Amino acid sequence: MKKSIVTFFLVMMMTIASAGENPFFKPFDRPYGTAPFSDIKLEHFEPAFDKGMEVHKSEIDKIASSSDAPTFANTIEAMEYAGEMLTRVSSVFFNLLSAESNDEMMEISQRLSPKLSAHSNYINLNEGLFNRVKTIYDERNSLGFTPEQIRLVEKYYESFENSGATLSSEDKEKYRNLTMELSKITLEFGQNVLRETNAYEMLLTEEPDLAGLPKSTIDAAAAKAKSKGKEGWIFDLTGPSYSAFMKYSSRRDLREQLYMAYNTKNVKGGEFDNRDNVMKIVNLRLEIAKLLGYDSYSDYVLKNRMAKSAEGVFGLLDRLAEAFGPVARDEVKDVQTFASEMEGKEIEIMPWDWSYYSEKLKDSRFGVNDEMTRPYFELENVKKGVFGLATQLYGLQFVKNPNIEVYHPEVEAFDVLDEKGEFLSVLYTDFHPREGKRSGAWMSTFKGQYIKDGVDSRPHTTIVMNFTRPTETEPALLTFSEVNTFLHEFGHALHGMLTRTTYESLSGTSVYRDFVELPSHFMENWLKEKDYLDKFAFHYQTGEKMPEELLQSIVDAANYNAGYATLRQLSFGYLDMAWHSLTQPFVPETSRPVRDFETKAMERVQLLPVINEPCMSTSFNHIFSGGYAAGYYSYKWAEVMDADAFSLFKEKGIFDKATADSFRRNILERGNTEEPEVLYKRFRGREASVNALLKRSGVEK
Fold first, then answer.
1. Does the annotation count 489 as an active-site position?
2. How many domains are contained in the chain?
3. What's the distance, CA 626 to chain centroid?
4. Are 514 and 306 in contact (CB under 8 A)?
């Protein structure tokens, strides 16, 4: 008995000691309050989430039960500043879950998902809290609030309204159950995609299998095989590996094999199959929308977007399909003719042929391809070029800081300083693919920006990519597309780093989904300008500038296959809207319901033969696991604005400081403090016009 008591107390003391060492239980004590990654262990996350939710709940209860009349300070601001610990652990955990995950983290996320959904619902369905917010909302225009305060009140009210606060008690319980189930399935969807992506590899062991591949691609594949203790060359479904093989391999049979592996992810049966998850997610979202009084999920989502409605989205998609369709079909005919001439026989271009033959035609027509430009896009030079553009436009300086801890040895951390040398932000950069990192590229924050007690608390921003790795003989040499992706994500980062708002909920990229892509697309424009390329495109061995004729070829080829690329992007938008504009539950009516639905949704902009086996929906993370449901059109919506915005730089000068200052003040710094239409008009002097996009793409002169 005594031994049991002693053991019990020892265990209790150890638990208390362990809890006391949890780094999330107090503000981080590293430079700028950055995350102490070396102190964070997997076992810290769940206790920190539990305690963070407990503390946040008590803060919310205090606000909701207050006997004082509701005011902006004791209700809206109090809610804004509540949940500090939960925010701290959430930002680290979910960033790492995307960039540095493992099976145990995925299991933790599955356990956390219902808890976090329940916690969110506890707040959003709290009647006393909502009543206080509604009181302030109803009087917001007569209480002397600043525009930003009014915006914050509206944001909180709309969040409550969109989360079921006005429902009956019975329907609130139904809403709780639906959102918890949806959270669980969307998380499972994304993890299935990551696991199936990681599980596949194509091991080649014979040199003839490498026909057509450049040395850089072969070296990278050999290094990948060596890292896994295998002889030969490994190609997988990560971006650099897959794209290079599809673009350069002259082995049509192997291109088809790799294409089918990539495009049949999560649709072949087995534990990672996502077909049922697609149908469940779509129907759960529709049921939630119906419960809240909307006919479709897109109606629910789009009321708080620039597009406003499904009609607004389809109007844009249809207009672009009509404008770019003839151009795209001509491009396909050109590649078809070229391929047949190249092979000396009639070739039907299949989906696994497009990258290969279109790249050959581009090389033939413009004298430029990725292997010619790669030596001039060495990663360190590209970093200088991308950072240097921000220096030239906005006066920013990027200083590597070895005292800031990182979550992986390949990650770098920078102090970002303004034109006066004052601290603006921390920037983390993470460039290369590895197991545990999801595919694609993204920007996120470890800490948002806000002003409290007169102190401007600056953000911690991260950009994560999956770029070509260095090999044993060469540094990381990027493709033109990878440099473009870098600029895109860096545009998001600037939006996050330059923000100057009072409230974190309105800062940086916390804007409408169809506005958030403006700063990112906007930055891509410079890559097609000779005057910009000439500043950083130096040969990694000789240091010589990219030859004038090669620079000109890049500019000349800027619109190559712009029609095809546009229709491909539109096909994703049509598919997204088809799934989320349903007004009745999706009921399987064929033996292959997800594939058949997808084929019909995309048929208007289909350019190449439809193959039976592939299915995009089952691995479409953006809309089924990310935040782009009924929002994938945002990329094209923002592209209209970015072309229109950059046309002003073309008029004034691509490095014009006054125009850059205006874009910074009116767009990048303002976050979500005003309607995006107001911000854009303030910068441009008028609404955005689609004409600049049509002109930039060569569709109209």
1. yes
2. 4
3. 8
4. yes
Kindly name the residue from 100, 489, 504, 524 that is annotated as catalytic: 489
Query: Do 413 and 463 belong together in one domain?
Result: yes
> 196 and 323 in contact (C-beta within 8 Å)?
no
Sign (positive/negative) of CA torsion 242, 246, 247, 249? Answer: positive
Whether 275 is in a domain gets the answer no
| 10-residue stretch averages of pLDDT, the chain, 701 residues long | 40 42 96 97 98 98 97 98 98 97 94 95 96 98 96 97 95 96 96 94 97 94 95 95 96 98 96 97 98 97 94 96 97 97 95 97 94 95 98 98 97 98 98 92 98 97 96 92 97 98 98 95 95 96 94 90 96 98 96 96 96 96 94 95 96 97 98 96 95 89 66
Residue type, 487: L
Residue 502 within a domain = yes
Out of 166, 189, 223, pick the residue that ends a domain.
Answer: 166
Is residue 64 domain-shared with residue 128, that is, in the same domain?
yes
Rounded to whole angstroms, the Cα distance separating 450 from 189 reads: 33
- Write down the pLDDT at residue 20: 54
Instruction: Indicate if 382 and 526 belong to the same structural domain.
Output: yes
Mark whether 509 and 582 lie in a shared domain. Answer: no
Residue 559 CA to residue 682 CA, distance in Å, equals 30
d(CA 401, CA 187): 34
- Residue owning tokens 């053991």: 7
Residue 1's pLDDT is what? Answer: 37
The tokens of 300 are what?
Answer: 């629910």
Domain, as residue range, for 380: 374-550
User: Do residue 149 and residue 232 come from a single domain?
Assistant: no
The answer to whether the CB of 189 falls within 8 A of the CB of 277 is: yes
Question: Residues 534, 594: one domain?
Answer: no
Neighbours of 553 (CB within 10 A): 21
Do 27 and 151 share a domain, yes or no?
Answer: yes
Report the distance separating Cα 70 and Cα 370, nearest Å.
Answer: 61
- Predicted pLDDT of residue 13: 39
Say what the pTM is.
0.91
Between CA 684 and CA 692 the distance in angstroms is 13
DSSP secondary structure letters along 381-440: HHHHHHHHHHHHHH--EEEE-TTS--SSTT-EEEEEE-TTS-EEEEEEEE-S--TTSPSS
